[in-house]
Design a protein that fits this description.
Mean pLDDT: 93
Structural class: mainly beta
Order of helices and strands: EEEEEEEEEEEEEEEEEEH
Helix content: under 10%
Number of helices: 1
Length: 238
C-alpha cells in the first residue's frame, strides 16, 4: 500500500486540543475502483468527527473504502472508541482496517492481511468477545459471494498499534447478496450468553447461528431465510 494522504479539516498550532472521536462516516463516493459488490458502497474518504466539532478526512492512494458504514468500538477500554472500516486496495482487494486518535487526528493503526486479489471483498458481521477470553474480536465474511467463509480476528492494542490476529473460521456462510446496499444478519450479544453470529447459509435458504463452543465455531440452522426480516427474531435478546 502506498503512503496515506490525510486531509485535515482544521489547522492546529500549539498544544493538541483534548478531544475524542465522536462519529465516523464514509464520504466522497467514487467509481475509481469499479467493483460494484455493494450498491453505492465505494468511497474515497473516511470522515472522522470529534467531540469538539472538528473532523478530518482520511484518504488512501491506491485504495477506497468499500463498505456500508464504519463502526465505532472501544477495543482498549480507555473510554474512547476506535473506528473499524473496510479498505479495498486496487491490487490486493479488501482488508479490515482499524483507526485510532493519536492526540491530534485519527490515523490507521492496524489491519488484517488483504484478500490478495483486486475486486475481492469482505463484509463485517459484528464485534464482540466471541470466545470469552476478555478481548473483543471482529467477525467478517471473507468473499461473501465466492468463498463464503466466516472469519474471526482478535484485536490486540499496544503501543499505539493494533494487531488483528485470526483464530477461527467456518465455511458455507454469507451475509451479503451481490449488488445490494446492506450487509444482512449481525451479532446477538446478550448478558450471560455466548455471542452469536447470524448469517445465511450458502444458497440463502436458511438463517444460521454460529457460536464459539468447545474450542471451535459451531453453526446451526435456526430458521428459513425469506428476506432481511428473517434475522430480526434471532438478533433479539430474550
Amino acid at each position: 500500500m502506498k503512503a496515506i494522504w490525510i486531509a485535515l479539516a482544521l489547522s492546529v498550532s500549539g498544544p493538541a486540543i483534548a478531544k475524542e472521536i465522536a462519529g465516523a462516516r464514509y464520504v466522497e463516493p467514487t467509481d475509481a475502483y469499479g467493483h460494484g459488490a455493494v450498491k453505492n458502497g465505494e468511497y474515497a474518504g473516511l470522515r472522522i468527527d470529534y467531540d469538539d466539532g472538528t473532523h478530518n478526512v482520511i484518504r488512501f492512494d491506491g485504495a477506497v473504502f468499500e463498505d456500508t458504514a464504519p463502526r465505532l468500538h472501544d477495543f482498549d477500554a480507555d473510554g474512547t472508541p476506535e473506528v473499524v472500516a473496510v479498505l479495498s486496495g486496487f491490487r490486493v482487494g479488501a482488508m479490515v482496517q482499524v483507526f485510532d486518535f493519536d492526540g491530534d487526528w485519527a490515523r490507521p493503526i492496524g489491519n488484517t492481511n488483504p484478500i490478495g486479489q483486486r475486486h475481492r471483498w469482505l463484509a463485517i458481521a459484528g464485534i464482540a468477545d466471541f470466545n470469552g477470553d476478555g478481548h473483543d474480536d471482529i467477525a467478517y465474511v471473507d468473499r461473501p459471494h465466492l468463498a463464503r467463509t466466516l472469519r474471526i480476528v482478535t484485536v490486540g492494542m499496544a503501543g499505539g498499534a493494533a494487531t488483528l490476529a485470526p483464530y477461527a473460521s467456518a465455511e458455507g456462510l454469507s451475509n451479503h447478496l451481490l449488488g445490494t446496499p446492506e450487509i444482512e444478519g449481525g451479532v446477538r450479544d446478550c448478558d450471560d450468553a455466548v455471542p452469536a453470529i447470524l448469517t445465511a447459509n450458502t444458497d440463502w435458504t436458511q438463517v444460521v447461528e454460529t457460536v464459539w463452543q468447545d474450542g471451535r465455531l459451531m453453526s446451526t440452522e435456526v430458521g428459513p431465510y425469506r428476506g432481511p426480516e428473517s434475522f430480526t427474531p434471532h438478533l433479539a435478546c430474550e
